[in-house]
Backbone:
């Protein structure tokens, strides 16, 4: 059985490295690099809707679907559009903030993120430091950015804001495949989105602290994902 892993922002599919040794023992793992991320060319604009259309064929005849952060938004859209080919859906802290607008902590984070994207520094390292701090990532930037990481940061800067995504919970809720939502107990705005997804999708829910937003690195994440997929 295939597992399709969709990565988040800043890093490419290499972000899944902590889970690959566990999953590859039992599954065919497909972990593409989203458009704009290395080793592919940088794009002027990255759109979650377009990427959902681009990556959906990788489900093949059927696959487990796993998405983190921006990749979680993409995964939710794929699952809604192609439920017949999704065997299960697991997302970790997707920034689908539109689901929880009106919640003060969500509105505050969206305002700060929007301000950073619109008026923040354009130098890649400075932008990334501010962005990673806002989302609570545990990633630490090296003193000198390697070209691959610099491109990943520039790709993040080109992404359509994920809080614009319209996640069709009413379409996803009745789908028969199991669903899992994971948060990292570090940011109440992400917790709020995951709460909405848990309730709206009747999903299993786990909280895995220890790595902030970088949930693939969280203690117990690979094992919990394997348990769910199994």
Residues:
């Amino acid at each position: 059985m295939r597992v399709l892993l969709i990565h988040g922002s800043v890093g490419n599919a290499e972000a899944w490295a902590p889970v690959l040794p566990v999953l590859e023992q039992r599954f065919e793992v497909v972990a593409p690099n989203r458009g704009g991320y290395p080793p592919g060319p940088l794009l002027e604009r990255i759109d979650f809707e377009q990427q959902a259309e681009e990556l959906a064929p990788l489900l093949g005849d059927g696959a487990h679907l796993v998405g983190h952060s921006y990749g979680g938004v993409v995964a939710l859209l794929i699952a809604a559009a192609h439920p017949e080919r999704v065997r299960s859906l697991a997302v970790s802290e997707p920034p689908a903030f539109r689901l929880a607008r009106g919640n003060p902590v969500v509105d505050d984070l969206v305002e700060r993120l929007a301000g950073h994207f619109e008026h923040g520094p354009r130098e890649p390292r400075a932008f990334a430091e501010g962005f990673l701090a806002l989302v609570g990532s545990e990633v630490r930037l090296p003193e000198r950015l390697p070209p691959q990481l610099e491109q990943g940061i520039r790709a993040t800067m080109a992404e359509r804001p994920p809080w614009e995504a319209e996640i069709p919970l009413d379409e996803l809720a009745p789908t028969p495949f199991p669903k899992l939502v994971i948060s990292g107990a570090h940011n109440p705005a992400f917790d709020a989105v995951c709460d909405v997804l848990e309730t709206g999708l009747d999903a299993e829910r786990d909280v895995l602290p220890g790595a902030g937003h970088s949930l693939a690195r969280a203690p117990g994440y690979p094992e919990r994902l394997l348990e769910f997929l199994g």
